[in-house]
Sequence to fold (152 residues):
Amino acid sequence: MQRTLVLLKPDCVQRRLMGKIIGRFEDKGLRIAAMKMLQVTPELSRQHYAEHVEKPFYPSLESFITSAPVVAMAIDGLEAIQVVRDILGATSGLKAAAGTIRGDYSSSRQMNLVHASDSEASATRELELYFNAEEFCDYEEATVAFLRADDE
Ligand code: CMP
Fold:
């Protein structure tokens, strides 16, 4: 079982796509362990996107990610990190396959609606940036017996 950080970005909130996007993760059988809306500050943006801070597109990315609230989610599931990345599709909405969130709803490299952690190390680091330990809800889903076999 893995846990990953998902952010519904300002374009997702402003375009009123939150419900549809959250539904994609629910429909897949993933479990939402934590969720909250917050305003990303420039400092949090620099921490989150530390690997991009020196890149030419970073000022524009910071301006975008701080322009409206985001929704941060912790999502659990078998191989959740890769499964969620596959549901999102390629970074650019212009390159993302049809059927993925970005392929279906985005035509942009920057305004690609959703962020998700790309590795276990990133997930651990990013979850700590957005959530305290007590914010994760540990509950048994009523549907789990019909989502996968016991030995999966
Ligand atoms: P995300 O998955 O959140 O990770 C980094 C983000 O930077 C990415 O989604 C895009 O929103 C943005 N991004 C990546 N590459 C570029 C680029 N070349 N120009 C502008 N924004 C980019």
